[in-house]
Amino acid sequence: MPEYKAPLRDMRFVMDEVFDFAAGYEAFGLDEVSPDLVGAILEEGAKFAGEVLAPLNRTGDEEGCHIDNGVVTTPKGFKEAYQQYVDNGWGSMTGPTEYGGQGLPASLGLVINEMVASANYAWSMYPGLSHGCAAAIRAHGTQEQKDLYLSKLTPGTWTGTMCLTEPHCGTDLGLIKTRAVPQADGSYKITGTKIFISCGEHDMAENIVHLVLAKLPDAPAGTKGISLFIVPKFLPDANGESGERNSLVCGSIEHKMGIKASATCVMNFDDATGFLIGDINKGLNCMFTMMNHARLGTGMQGLCHGEASYQSAVTYAKDRLQMRSLSGPAAPEKPADPIIVHPDVRRMLLTMKAFNEGNRALAYYTAQLLDKAHYSKDEAERADAESQLAFLTPICKAFMTETGLEATILGQQVFGGHGYIREWGQEQQVRDCRIAGIYEGTNGIQALDLLGRKVLGSQGKLLMAFTKQVHKFCQANEGHATLGGYVKQLNGLNAQWGELTTKIGMKAMQNREEVGAASMDFLMFSGYVTLAFFWLKMAVAAQQQLDAGSTEAAFYEAKLVTQEFYFKRLLPRASAHKEALEAGADSLMKLSAEQF
Amino acid sequence: MPEYKAPLRDMRFVMDEVFDFAAGYEAFGLDEVSPDLVGAILEEGAKFAGEVLAPLNRTGDEEGCHIDNGVVTTPKGFKEAYQQYVDNGWGSMTGPTEYGGQGLPASLGLVINEMVASANYAWSMYPGLSHGCAAAIRAHGTQEQKDLYLSKLTPGTWTGTMCLTEPHCGTDLGLIKTRAVPQADGSYKITGTKIFISCGEHDMAENIVHLVLAKLPDAPAGTKGISLFIVPKFLPDANGESGERNSLVCGSIEHKMGIKASATCVMNFDDATGFLIGDINKGLNCMFTMMNHARLGTGMQGLCHGEASYQSAVTYAKDRLQMRSLSGPAAPEKPADPIIVHPDVRRMLLTMKAFNEGNRALAYYTAQLLDKAHYSKDEAERADAESQLAFLTPICKAFMTETGLEATILGQQVFGGHGYIREWGQEQQVRDCRIAGIYEGTNGIQALDLLGRKVLGSQGKLLMAFTKQVHKFCQANEGHATLGGYVKQLNGLNAQWGELTTKIGMKAMQNREEVGAASMDFLMFSGYVTLAFFWLKMAVAAQQQLDAGSTEAAFYEAKLVTQEFYFKRLLPRASAHKEALEAGADSLMKLSAEQF
């Protein structure tokens, strides 16, 4: 089984040639983020991911986490790898400089995160959730809270979690039962049970900072009565170091389909000391800071498993000899041809390639938006970046994980029977990837968020801001010598996107169920069109290089062929989603519960 | 976690009201297969599946199989359940009466097999493979071989396997290295290693009969030099009982993604004694008897996991309270509504329901063809049934397993985070189901078989025989008062099916890669149209009952709604597959291996 290698050339293509990250850094006055520095970070990140984390991926799955009397042990090597990650400053890359961070832009952090998470997704969750926790404290904490916790979370000395779900509620957080009772000293006593807490307990860091949703005794019912609390495993002492043990404990860890090296904990809080963060009853707002962060990260999970699976599948398809090419023997000296000669094997590999590289372009585009939202001096640009992020986040989360799962399933299929055997690693990619469509808001919830809140909730404004951009691109390229036909195809779909939305909006005024009935197909339609846009952007960039006589013709030609494949072989699915959602809610709502 | 219950009403609907199994039994002179007998068998089968096998499904997965010095132990309870299966005559149902079988028709066997395999797929593989082995011996063995082995395999006293795959070849059996050296007594010495041998070694029966593909020393190269051998674990003694141990051993068992309770063995044959079955160098022909049997069985696997997953998902969706219906509270007395009120949850359940019930109709139709091919006194009818089976087998195998996997993934999704946790059982359905698209010829190979061998290889004859039937049905129902619109839609797709095939055939004359480039999308297109045909047959039958004033209106209305859902929400995918395959081989074949 080949281990993951960061696809640096593909990454650089998107960073440099499609979106020009460097120009952004310059515009934002990030002079220290020089091309040399970026190059060095990418090279070192690739090494760390490939040499330290990738070798722990399968052993981590085999060994899993163990719990003994509330103490969770992570698989062999995980702790040491984490220490190396902290020591070498990977954890603090994008953290604020005032707390020991390096202040590097989020876009660069996301690229490094792609490497880390592709090499070993389960491992990457430990630092990944910490980043979300730190972001929430940075956005909503008091100065004291920031000083205390960010100085530990930023370098990675402590890690963090988010504790939302309870046994009887996940999506519907208004139902939570965890209680927070105010104390005389301004703190709170937190009591309740949280489940599915990723990295809720482990042996990798000296302390764990839980962000916990709970209700005050007199809180209003539903989501308007939820507050957020910082509940550390060890209470900070006077020097801000881990002090007294708080009364919370990991009751058990779940036995799961995959990401077995990531401890998924049941956390029992029993009069644990907590500190309010943000305003009373505004906990959900604070939590959304974490959740948006986590949703983009979860979207990346689709790409990460898809890429790792693709790399193994390509290697296998070049090695495995089986049958002859119908066009005549490709390796006449061998007993059979490598299976990469067969068109149906190529269909599977190209589907993976098209989704992975398209998803990477989508992800890096949002990464650049994160930079803009943070650094731009122009308020309108910042606001535009925030709006685009709001619009693209559910697409990233759901479309990238749906297509990522399809990619890993195909990567397993390329291996035939060997794909089903644990030793080859492909089945782990499928098992690990499967969770991405479920957690951080199921993909169905993302679809409702996209269509209900973001698109219809903004009276179409967020969608139009994006389709306008696509339209502009199409206008600019309508006369393209080789890609003009595809530009026309994209422009047509882009127009349909708006029309569809208007139609659903009209129907929803008659029947509110129409939104939920259309949402998942709308999300998938949106994803296919969005990826078509980014694929065409990549194709235009590749054609430019070819026209300029690039010495890397094979690389750029592959981009053009993959774009062609995407448009001809995958994009037709957009129409199937359109037709399905246009059918409306009727056939969905007719059956009584008993008729199922 | 609710355990599987055979959906008897749905099964009877297809058996009695859509295809009229009883009329077939009468026509074939199977007087003993009375409605009373059928009813009793179904009731008892449902009990055995639900009460004996289903409770062993999850424990079997947790425990798995173990090997110690060549001895394989199956999970607790498996052996006892097998004994009960044998004692109660389930194994011998369809076996020949001269060898202790009950001579019941294959159609009834398939229905019982659906129950058994839905309750516990891994367990069902032990008897399942035996049936294939017995079928091959019955078709190709000498009288002596039949007397010897069928008298043990038919009641299930011994079990059987098929040993094809070797480490370096699965699809490409021409490459096998296992050798068969003729001995003076007419037997052969078999030496070689076979892998992925399902149920190759276990503790459930007193002997195991391996059917092994091997090459004689002077055999021609490739598939024309393969012979088939009976290689029993214990050589039969003079009385036909298990005698001396043969020199073959299970070297190891695989660690797999799923079907963990089914022992997947590496079998080492070391000068093992084997007996030629069928003619020298005609082994593949003999093996195809087993493989066609196994392919239909594997297609059923898609339905079985889909159905088991659906039952759990519906129960969960009625129990789990989360959010309010947008149309107003459905359960105002509870803290939230059951999630079955939400349109997107219904979309998932209906997708499962539509695939499961459509696939069941397809499967039962082929079951009736099995009866026709075996019992019909009319040679033309027998030949027609054989042709239709040849045509439908790859569709059953691949389409039912692709859509079955989609169904199990949706059934997991309905559970949210709980779907990812082992204890709920839904993730096991996904892991177990995943193998069905891979083994017994990957789905890509089925697609080549359908388009290359069956459709184009018969100059379209096999396809036309089926599309003619669909066309006739459409003509007969074009004026249907309520379903006329769907009839027109089906008729249009049916016409496209033929046109598409002609186009591919023309292109393939220019470029042989066009077949492989089109095959998988062609298979999926074929599957969607085939299911549309069967759904419409079901809808017509349901409407008839409603028109006649049935007292089961809710049941029949659910059929009509599911048919509507299938046509409006799932069938549009057929067009996406059509568009994709019409794009041809170009974008698939352009890249060199290095460009991947």
Automatic annotation (TrEMBL), chains A, B:
Keywords of the record: FAD, Flavoprotein, Oxidoreductase
GO molecular function: flavin adenine dinucleotide binding; oxidoreductase activity, acting on the CH-CH group of donors
Pfam families hit by this protein: Acyl-CoA_dh_1, Acyl-CoA_dh_C, Acyl-CoA_dh_M, Acyl-CoA_dh_N
InterPro entries: Acyl-CoA_dh-like_C_dom (IPR025878), Acyl-CoA_Oxase/DH_mid-dom (IPR006091), Acyl-CoA_Oxase/DH_mid-dom_sf (IPR046373), AcylCo_DH-like_C (IPR036250), AcylCo_DH/oxidase_C (IPR009075), AcylCoA_DH/ox_N (IPR013786), AcylCoA_DH/ox_N_sf (IPR037069), AcylCoA_DH/oxidase_NM_dom_sf (IPR009100)
Cleavable signal peptide: none
Domain Acyl-CoA dehydrogenase/oxidase C-terminal: 281-449
Domain Acetyl-CoA dehydrogenase-like C-terminal stretches: 466-591
Cofactor (UniProt): FAD
The keyword Magnesium is assigned to this record: no
Its EC number(s): 1.3.99.41
Domain of life assignment: Bacteria
Residue span(s) of domain Acyl-CoA oxidase/dehydrogenase middle: 162-271
SUPFAM superfamilies (UniProt xref): Acyl-CoA dehydrogenase C-terminal domain-like, Acyl-CoA dehydrogenase NM domain-like
Reaction catalysis annotation: 3-(methylsulfanyl)propanoyl-CoA + oxidized [electron-transfer flavoprotein] + H(+) = 3-(methylsulfanyl)acryloyl-CoA + reduced [electron-transfer flavoprotein]
EC class: oxidoreductase
Task performed by this protein: Involved in the assimilation of dimethylsulphoniopropionate (DMSP), an important compound in the fixation of carbon in marine phytoplankton, by mediating the conversion of 3-(methylthio)propanoyl-CoA (MMPA-CoA) to 3-(methylthio)acryloyl-CoA (MTA-CoA).
Family named by the database record: Belongs to the acyl-CoA dehydrogenase family.
PANTHER family associated with the record: ACYL-COA DEHYDROGENASE, BROAD-SPECIFICITY LINEAR ACYL-COA DEHYDROGENASE FADE5
Name of the protein this chain belongs to: 3-methylmercaptopropionyl-CoA dehydrogenase
